[in-house]
Amino acid sequence: MDSIWLLGEILMVNLVLSGDNAMVIAMASKNLPEEQRKKAVWWGSAGAVLLRCILTLAAVLLLKIPYIQAGGGILLLWISFKLLLEEEDQIRVSEGSTVWKAIRTILAADFIMSLDNVLAIAGLAKGDLALIVIGIALSIPIVVWGSGIIVGWLHRFPVLIYIGAYILAYTAGEMLLHDAKLGAVLSILLPTMHTLLPVALGVAVVAAGGIKRHTPKAG
Prior knowledge:
Layout: H1 2-17, H2 19-29, H3 34-62, H4 68-83, H5 99-113, H6 115-125, H7 129-145, H8 147-156, H9 159-178, H10 182-189, H11 197-214
Keywords: Membrane, Transmembrane, Transmembrane helix
Subcellular location: Membrane
Pfam family, one: TerC
């Protein structure tokens, strides 16, 4: 049951974090004829799965180094808050005129935008390579083929973004606790409360992000 729950969390996080990726895929292949568009999407998806598996496995190994996991947790905490901000970084995407150009665009964009996904999956899976591969293999095709639907869902059901942000912040808290060095320090500084850190961070990020998201801009 724990593995099924973790797999569900991985899929949810990928769903929420992949809105930009979905738009890139749609834009990169939209000018191709139907048959070529399907090829570009298929090969782009297969390449993205392989690329993200390699990056995530590398992250799992790096996160075993003292303080690296804590640094990853802090970065993931920022990503979880940034997810709730209205302003999002935009990546310029050239519309592919050939199958190969579209595939290259999809792979390049996925590489650039996969840091948040990679950190989240590495933190959630806790080194379980089977969960990492299954989670990525299932989530990327869903994102690729359902790109338009996913973007619509995120706009129609904002609660999905808040759920994703909470999971990310919670995972960031767990990464801080599990860091070989910082985790020991936190257990000393917060002897009775340190286990509640992930929940506290999740609630704080959702609350702060929600307030920021709905605060009218000056001017």
